């Protein structure tokens, strides 16, 4: 211990005398350790840390699928059967979301509500902060109860403790507040009020897939076992209802996995790049440490001559490395704390950090471990190399040999830095190229100059289709006459929002069994002016017109993928389709519109069918207004027209359609920006490392260069020597880096769109960028080489 303290005091004195060196090392490490700590903390919180519910690893997401389709929500009969017969589940609860309008003090406001079964809170192990939830009897009897989210309780009611028993007017109906949830509870993100899921025999049928199921596995049961059991139950229910087993399959996956599956690859990629940057920083600092150790070679040799053991020398240099690493780590905490706010934007909804971004126990532990490993990594090699000094090195002078060895090892570190930077740049470049492909891809509509908003008609004031139809017609008539409105329309769901409503499709001449096994078709409702407002091309037939009302023949529009799949090689116009199974209304196809992206751009557009709003009036809808210029003042006029129709009806989510589209790219744009920033940091560190090696080489060979100048070497020749040495190192690093990048790029295939893992633009652009930056880093040492004095060199030789 006394030896350690003595070495520590000596280290602090040495670093104090070499402030420029110390600052350079600490700043380099602060950026690298800070970035690494922030990314590692995010990975821990999102991918590794369990959800804040008891035994959260046993919480499962249950859904259904057909043999040819993607996931479907469950039906209410499925829920009841699984509750009664599924032995592999210790609890099964359900919920679904809808928008409501709250009126009264504070003015009208749109709220996101979640209707849930009575046991959901207890299944999650959550107790209300105030009051209670609801009992099964209250759920089935239709009691109008409400449990408030903590945020809504604070914002709208000021955190009043007497909130229990108050009456809220939601969609024109009175609801009694019976509870308030604790702060931080966000199982269904964005929910502001919870209400009982009351059974509705008319709409909760075996074909109505709208329930999201959360279940807890019974002890000793795996997700695979539960999925097999639930699939058997689906077959039994289909057999009882139709006489045949059907093709429905139950899917049971951990709830946490369902939340993070879309971000897992992004975070691991970010983690990989930040590790490359940390390695580049370690190589950079190791070079600086070797330079400083070479300058202290005589000191080390004297200590050996006086009896110092090799392990004592290693201890001294490792202490210096660790002190610098922990100083960099301490400064890196500030970088990490700031970076956490940016990284939170990559966190999917439903996965919550505990507390606000900043200092917490996880971040401090990760910063400590990263600093410790970094200090050992960049300090061990210099310590081992310098500790090999012998006593005769002080007397016989081995500085030249040491410098030569140091130069060779320093060059190797530069090659490694360039290679690592190349890998990071290729990975970042592929993601940025993917983002560009997404942003320039055809959407099937024109979002520019379109303003959107969402509105919901309360059932109490608009109880029937006639009232909803009259409201929609009156609103559109008012908006069309505004001087700066070019076109306007209403639709059930906006494009690029991922909101879909699937229904069974029947075609003439096919059996009900065939229709039942077909994947549900996405169905949307749109007004006559909607496609004009979004400039969706009409490929065949006609659009909806005002005459497509309730007394007119039932009609539909379909998109191109629908026509290509179900009516290949023939005209779709005039064909008939039916929604649902059994008895129903046959509808005539009157037109085919272009394929619009309603989900992610990199997903294939599915077959879709549009119903006219006049024939299928909506309670919840989105307003689209194409303006001659998208000014805020013009949309104020839209608000005034709505207020004139219904002063208690708020517009929610008012934004441009460009913003709706941009939101779908948000995660990838932020990922691309972070990767570009990290890769640029790695590139900068590699350039600094190259500059340091060449500057040292020029300083070490100054006499040799001066002699060459005295013997007639031109400035261009001397400059070329230095540039050639530097660019050879860079070329070696680029070659190794591109080979490594080619291997790494194959793992990124799932994150790419419109670009291959061997994208020639990226693989050609990265070497060009590296060579350009490297040439700039080499230029200053090369210029210094031309200033070597021949006279001074000759005097030294003499």
From TrEMBL:
Residues 23-231, 412-644 form the MacB-like periplasmic core domain. Keywords: Cell membrane, Membrane, Transmembrane, Transmembrane helix. The chain crosses the membrane at residues 267-290, 317-343, 363-386, 407-432, 674-699, 729-755, 761-782. It is found in: Cell membrane. One of its GO terms (cellular component) is plasma membrane. It is a multi-pass membrane protein. Its main location: membrane. Pfam families: FtsX, MacB_PCD. This is ABC transporter permease. It comes from Corallococcus llansteffanensis.
